[in-house]
Amino acid sequence: MNNLFSEQAAYTIDLSSLLKLFKESEAYYKGNFPSLWNKIEEAILEGEIISHIQVYDEIMQFNGDKDELMIWAKENKHLFRDYNLPEESDFIRIIGEKYPQFLSQGKHTIAHADPWLVAQARHQKLTVICDEGKTKHNSLHVVCREYKIPSLDILGLMKQKQWVV
């Protein structure tokens, strides 16, 4: 395995995908697919998969202290990159002109990472990994498609990377 951050980041991962890996009731739960989790964790350790600090804030906001995802996020805080201002905030303003409801999506919470992930992906030329609906008007996938930012779900990542688990 290479050193931390030895690869150029290629992906930014959303909370929806992390939940698919950390919740026992979800399709790609790491306990059921340890080889998939090992590949994802290796890509994270190598810096190929990153995320945004807003995703970290969402995890801290929505998950209990003993939650496995929260514990893992605290141990792997290097994954969650800080804001890149003003580039990200400027692009979020542009998104808001066409998709105003995407910026809040009716969430009355402190953290809402979706716009920041799109801006991070645009600024750093990343692919967004997201496991939420692909057709909902305000979904990450729809907004990414509008701005020609590649997005895929975990299954798409597995196909793209040609991972067999």
Give the tags:
165 residues; alpha/beta; Rossmann fold; 5 strands; 49% helix; 8% strand; globular
**Average predicted confidence as pLDDT:** 89
Give me the count of strands.
Answer: 5
- The SSE string, one letter per element, is EHHEHHEHHHEHEH
Strand content: 5-15%
**Any idea what the radius of gyration is?**
15 Å
Unreliable spans are none
User: Can you say what the CATH homologous superfamily is?
Assistant: 5'-nuclease
What kind of oligomer do you see? single chain
- What's the main sheet like? 5 strands, parallel
- Structurally, the number of domains stands at 1
Number of helices: 9
* CATH architecture call: 3-Layer(aba) Sandwich
Structural class: alpha/beta
CATH topology: Rossmann fold
Give the termini separation: 19 Å
Helix share of residues? 40-55%
> Class in CATH?
Alpha Beta
Major β-sheet strand ordering: 3-2-1-4-5
Principal-axis shape: globular
Give the topology.
Layout: E1 11-13, H1 15-22, H2 34-45, E2 49-52, H3 53-62, H4 68-75, E3 80-81, H5 87-98, H6 100-104, H7 114-124, E4 127-129, H8 140-146, E5 151-152, H9 154-161
Helix pairs in contact: 5-7
Q: How would you describe the overall organization of this protein?
A:
Helix content is 49%, strand content 8%. The protein has 165 residues and is an alpha/beta fold. It has one domain: Rossmann fold (3-Layer(aba) Sandwich). It has a five-stranded parallel β-sheet. Helix 8 links the parallel strand 4 and strand 5. The radius of gyration is 15 Å and the shape is globular. The model has no long low-confidence stretch (mean pLDDT 89).
